[in-house]
Design brief:
By secondary structure, the chain is α/β, with parallel strands linked by helices. The protein has 7 helices and 19 strands. It folds into 2 domains: 280 residues, 4-Layer Sandwich (Purple Acid Phosphatase, chain A, domain 2), CATH 3.60.21; 39 residues. The relative contact order is 0.15. The model has no long low-confidence stretch (mean pLDDT 91).
């Protein structure tokens, strides 16, 4: 038996997953309802129904809800999502309210062992839930996470911390994220699972424990999405430019002896299949190193945008490119 961890999942319809897996857990990146008022001034994602069983052929053991889209339609859609999960015996964690500790941890049984699942979303991902709502994503405050880990130590055999964090499209972790991941392992976590960056991020081992800074997408269709609700209507349509790296993802497997392995996949627009993707290994050693890379990364993106839409740049654009 194995327990598989998948990255970000968005299902606007049924897709095909051409993989061999048993129990699985993924980051559910949208509410399973579009009922409610959209959150203003962001990209909003939802689905009017669940396509989980139609896509995977079975239901997951659990889903992570700590992300920046699960509350895109406020309390109403969030509550309907929870109702679906409860009615289908799917464990969930990482979102809720202070009264239920944002449903952290979810404790699941796997091969006669108890696994604690914790989920948190970094405030930088803008995990907003709109106005006058009672539920939200658990935020990545390290002191609270340390308390939650400590509370799990005597209750379970293995602790998995899911973290929605990182800069979008950047394949390397922030030095502050590296520091936090190691802090959580020092506190007793056994596995760190990251997501949000839309690409596979670096992996490393620390004190014999595995850190996956970002699994990338598992199944995230790139389609035109309504965006930037102004209180009456959506003012924009979000049409992201998809690259191969945005369609690749990591799968992390836990076996019955609690050993961790990983493999890579690709979503081709219709199905998920095994794929040999490059996994970055570089870990920035300092904020200065990371800042240097980000400057290079942004300049490269500017050049790519110019190549896609060539035109005479303005003086302000030239000045911005030169960093002056």
């Amino acid at each position: 038996m194995k327990l598989s961890f998948f990255g970000d999942v968005v299902l606007d319809k049924a897709y095909t997953v051409n993989l061999s897996f048993q129990d699985f857990i993924f980051n559910l990146e949208h509410p399973l309802s579009c009922e409610g008022i959209p959150v203003k001034n962001k990209v909003n994602i939802c689905a009017d129904k669940s396509y989980i069983e139609e896509t995977f052929g079975k239901l997951p053991l659990a889903v992570n809800l700590a992300n920046n889209h699960i509350g895109d339609y406020g309390d109403s859609a969030f509550v309907k999502t929870i109702d679906f999960l409860v009615n289908n015996n799917i464990a969930y964690f990482g979102a809720g309210n202070e009264g239920n500790n944002f449903n952290n941890p979810a404790i699941v049984n796997f091969e006669e062992k108890k696994i604690a699942l914790l989920g948190y979303s970094c405030p930088t991902t803008n995990a907003v839930f709109g106005n006058n709502v009672s539920n939200g994503s658990a935020l990545l405050y390290h002191k609270k996470i340390l308390l939650d880990i400590n509370d799990c130590l005597s209750k379970v055999d293995f602790i998995v911390v899911n973290l929605h964090w990182g800069d979008e499209d950047v394949r390397y972790p922030k030095p502050s994220d590296v520091e936090k991941a190691k802090m959580f392992i020092d506190a007793g976590a056994d596995l760190i699972i990251g997501h949000h960056a839309h690409v596979i991020q670096s992996i490393e081992k620390y004190k014999g424990k595995n850190i996956f800074y970002g699994l990338g997408h598992f199944l995230f269709p790139y389609m035109d999405r309504p965006a930037y609700y102004d209180g009456k209507k959506f003012s924009k349509v979000y049409s992201p430019k998809e690259k191969q790296v945005n369609r690749e993802g990591l799968v992390v497997d836990l076996d019955s002896n609690l050993n961790v392995t990983h493999s890579t996949i690709m979503f081709d627009g219709n199905s998920v299949k095994q794929w040999k993707a490059k996994i970055p290994r570089w870990i920035p050693k300092s904020q200065k190193q990371y800042n240097w890379f980000i400057r290079f990364f942004k300049k490269r993106k500017m050049l790519e945008m110019f190549a896609q839409n060539p035109r005479i740049p303005t003086f302000a654009q030239i000045k911005h490119f030169l960093g002056r």
